[in-house]
Specification:
The complex is a heterodimer of chains A (about 300) and B (about 300).
Chain A: H1 17-25, E1 43-54, E2 59-66, E3 77-80, E4 97-100, E5 103-107, E6 110-118, H2 122-129, E7 135-142, E8 155-160, H3 168-174, E9 178-184, H4 193-197, E10 203-208, E11 215-216, H5 219-229, E12 236-240, H6 243-255, E13 260-263, E14 279-281, E15 287-289, E16 296-298
Parallel strand pairs in A: 8-9, 8-12, 9-10, 10-11, 12-13
Antiparallel strand pairs in A: 1-2, 1-7, 2-6, 3-4, 3-7, 5-6, 13-16, 14-15
Helix pairs in contact in A: 5-6
Chain B: E1 10-12, E2 15-17, E3 21-23, E4 45-47, E5 64-67, E6 70-73, H1 82-89, E7 99-103, H2 108-118, E8 124-130, H3 147-159, E9 165-168, H4 176-185, E10 190-193, E11 197-199, E12 202-203, E13 208-209, E14 216-219, H5 224-237, E15 242-245, H6 251-259, E16 264-267, H7 270-273, H8 277-291
Helix pairs in contact in B: 2-3, 3-4, 4-5, 6-8
The chains are: A alpha/beta (about 300), B alpha/beta (about 300).
């Protein structure tokens, strides 16, 4: 089935009532409705490293056994302390790193939670060096999930760089009416492709800037073509990746009347609305916190040109 | 002696605390954000985010950056305003939680008006005066950097409330002892120190400061030895109880501040790293006291063996 011209959504996937209430209560740029509890209240826990695996280039996958992990919704994230905990608390680097939950599964010993990341600095380098059995601090799940696609609608998922990791759970939820577009500089920069390929009924197209995998070019060029070929009404677009990519995705979607949701990746210190460090500029004026108003925003509400 | 036999209560300038561990303003939101991670009732209390008369929007991003063993921030005191705090945030907390309201304004009169509004409000145990704001009329210098401005500020807030009044001092001064004496002379019931240390970091690729605001405040373990020095100097200069703040991330860190003369402590940046850490620090202090034979936490205060002429 062509996901973009296909029939309605599977009847066996209505949003659970508590989720639809949660999504109705959220305004993309407004303050969190304090009366609406999050789906999975966050926990703080010691995650035990099961393995750290190379995923091509400087990409890594860390699998943690997290006791008490309550599960998460597509687009949610966790704060991971940099590197394994030692007898003397690490102070440098100090702050935890926000990372999208790639996937999790229940086991007899607790939830196995996977994160994909790219080694870009000292914090992620320490994470990459963590050994099996060592402990990593975890706070999560945090943030608001990607909203549901309207009934009978299709969607396009656009991922670039480490943003690809945010889309896996969404791809599972929205397949088979979803198409996934992945972009990276080179073949080695693509993360998690084999996992996406294993998702039933998910159509995947890839663009790399050097042409080493898929088409040569930018993922945003793929998106333009896909949207131009799509039937009306236009599919919902979801994106996560570098800010310039998401800004361009927002522009392309808006020009074609497609609703677009973007998952932002600002720096943050806490992840749950306290440090106020992750403020994103909002068209309505002022700022919204990426951690708890987002990370998922309706793209037209974000002042892209003023993003850090 | 076991940890649960230790008398953990302390009196911070007329505020009775069930234990000496508070959390610092600006790092603990309005309290409920931490409900998933710890029992708020298990803490000595918390200092809410600084309140202004009107709601306030913060600085453009980037607002935070990592620093060696610390972080830089320039949030600019974004807050919901005193009315929303009283109407929406305070009622969300149990009566068992000790709440200290931090007040701030760009003019002395505004500090006074926020404080007046909080006076007599049920659930507010005390006032912390955030004296580290730039004083607009004095050309942008912090109230807490000028003895005359600090005196005028403390006097005004004193006249605006019957609640216990703590004054949070800036570390960006030549003599913390002088500032401590000024606050004492104007009627402060206690002192809190230190606030963040003014700092700057630079992105060499863009040749710009890393924060959009340019300057920021350095917090976290990086400033702990500076904070300990200043707490010790202030404690030596005045008779007021002191709340020690600066890079506290463990019970051992907290005990250091008590030994240097602090009656209580505030945990700040460490709340971001581990939102349950303040509760662990309470437990750890009790264990330390039991291990070292202190039946009362109050007996630890100022128990530092000081070098002559130090």
């Amino acid at each position: 089935m062509d996901p973009l011209n296909g029939a309605g959504r599977p009847a066996n996937h209505p949003p659970p009532p508590e989720l639809s209430r949660f999504l109705l209560a959220q305004s993309p740029a407004g303050p969190r409705d304090m009366a609406t509890p999050p789906l999975h209240p966050p926990i703080r826990a010691d995650g035990t490293v099961v393995e750290v695996r190379h995923e091509g280039g400087s990409n890594r996958r860390i699998s943690l056994l997290v006791p008490g992990w309550p599960g998460s919704e597509p687009g949610q994230f966790a704060m991971l302390s940099p590197g394994a905990r030692s007898a003397v608390p690490r102070t440098d680097p100090l702050l935890p790193r926000p990372m999208a939950v790639f996937r999790s599964q229940a086991t007899d010993d607790g939830h196995l939670v996977e994160f994909l990341f790219k080694v870009t600095g000292r914090g992620t380098a320490l994470m990459a060096e963590a050994l099996t059995g060592q402990v990593v601090g975890v706070v999560g799940p945090l943030g608001r999930p990607f909203p549901r696609v309207p009934e009978a609608g299709a969607c396009v998922l656009v991922g670039g760089g480490t943003g690809i990791a945010s889309l896996y759970a969404l791809a599972i939820r929205e397949a088979p009416t979803a198409m996934l577009l992945l972009g990276a500089g080179s073949r080695d920069d693509l993360m998690g492709v084999e996992d996406f390929e294993a998702v039933d009924d998910l159509e995947i197209r890839i663009a790399t800037e050097d042409g080493s995998r898929g088409e040569q070019g930018l993922v945003t060029q793929l998106l333009e073509r896909v949207l131009d070929e799509a039937q009306s009404p236009p599919p919902t677009v979801f994106s996560c990746g570098p800010t310039p990519m998401m800004a361009r995705v927002a522009e392309i979607a808006a020009a074609r009347g497609a609703t677009c949701w973007a998952s932002l990746e600002n720096n943050m210190a806490c992840g749950f609305g306290v440090c106020l460090g992750c403020a994103a500029p909002i068209r309505a004026g002022g700022y919204a916190l990426v951690c708890n108003t987002g990370p998922v925003f309706e793209a037209s509400t974000v002042t892209w040109e003023a993003m850090p | 002696m076991t940890p649960d036999q230790v008398d953990m209560t302390v009196d911070l300038g007329g505020i009775e605390l069930r234990n000496p561990v508070l959390t610092a303003s600006g790092t603990f939101g309005y309290g409920t954000e931490f409900s998933p991670f710890l029992e708020l009732e298990s803490l000595g209390g918390f200092v809410a985010k600084s309140l202004t008369l009107e709601p306030r929007t913060g600085n453009p991003p980037p607002r935070i950056a990592e620093a060696p063993s610390g972080m830089l921030n320039a949030i600019s005191l974004e807050n919901v305003g005193v009315e929303a705090f009283i109407r929406e945030r305070l009622p969300a907390l149990s009566d068992e939680v000790t709440v200290i309201a931090s007040v701030f304004g760009t003019e002395i009169e505004l500090y006074g008006r926020v404080t007046e509004r909080l006076d007599g409000v049920s659930g507010v145990a005390g006032i912390e005066v955030n004296a580290s704001c730039p004083h607009v009329k004095a050309g942008g210098i912090e109230f807490g950097q000028d003895p005359k401005a600090l005196a005028a500020l403390v006097r005004t807030v004193r006249q605006s409330t019957r609640l216990p009044m703590l004054v949070k001092l800036s570390p960006n001064v030549t003599s913390i002892a002088e500032m401590a004496r000024v606050a004492e002379a104007e009627g402060a019931d206690g002192l809190c120190l230190i606030n963040a240390v003014q700092a700057l970091d630079v992105d060499v690729d863009t040749r710009r400061p890393v924060l959009a605001n340019g300057l920021g405040g350095l917090s976290g373990p990086a400033i702990r030895p500076i904070a300990l020095r200043m707490v010790w100097q202030a404690a030596s200069a005045v008779d007021l109880p002191i709340c020690g703040i600066g890079g506290i991330a463990s019970a051992e860190d907290a005990v250091k501040f008590l030994l240097c003369g602090a009656t209580a402590v505030q945990v700040g940046t460490a709340n971001y790293l581990d939102p349950g850490v303040a509760g662990q620090i309470v437990t750890g202090i009790a264990e330390y006291a039991a291990r070292h034979g202190f039946a009362r936490i109050a007996d630890l205060v100022g128990a530092l063996e000081t070098p002559q002429g130090g």
